[in-house]
Amino acid sequence: MRKLTYYVACSLDGFIGDPHGDASSMFQFMDEEYAAFMNTEYPDTLPTAFRAAVGLADVPNKRFDTVIQGLGSYRLALDAGITSPYAHLREIVATRSLTESPDPNVELVAGDLAARVRELKAEDGSLGIWLCGGAQVAGQLVEEIDELVIKSYPQVYGSGMPMFGADFALRDFALDGVRTFGNGVVVRTYTRKR
Question: Is residue 68 part of a domain?
Answer without folding.
Answer: yes
